[in-house]
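Hi L., both proteins are below.
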Amino acid sequence: MIKEEIFEILTHHFHPLSLEVIDDSLKHAKHQSNMSFNKGTIETHFCIKIYSIQLNNMKLLEAHKAIYSKLDAIMARIHALQIILIKD
């Protein structure tokens, strides 16, 4: 499942002290674009809440780019990704 893949990838690369991956797909299930996006898979919309010292040392845009870079292999299966960086 994509949610677990996101969790594993981010844990491996950023060693977060806190990480929550929320599947928001059901909120968008009736959207026409969502019905055909992932060929019937209901996992398409996610929210990531992450606290990582490594990411906290980056500017916001750099941290987002770093996360997207690590998720690149699965991004074709994700329609929407919200990233919330938890700061000190």
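That was the first. Here is the second:
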Amino acid sequence: MLTLLSSLVLLLAGQPPAPAPPAPFTATRFREHVAYLASDELAGREVASAGNAKAVDYLIHVLKECGAHGLAAGGDWVQPFPYATMVKALIESFRHRHVRALLLKRLT
């Protein structure tokens, strides 16, 4: 019994300390998050844009501060999302007058 107890104490002693709990949620802190995520610095956060990447980095940083861990493969925080390139290609194509006219004709 003493051996089991000694082993348990040694096992627990080797564990890293638990992260400090995050600061309590406040309306002020919430407004700060929203203000940054809606700021001109992020330029609308369009999919696959630099503003979107900044928003993702910000959210990951805040979640890590709260002690969260990434849930994607290998503990990563993000996962591939190939749809972005298709949407961007469609938007670029839609800007051309002939393609836009053809698409609008098919929709009506």
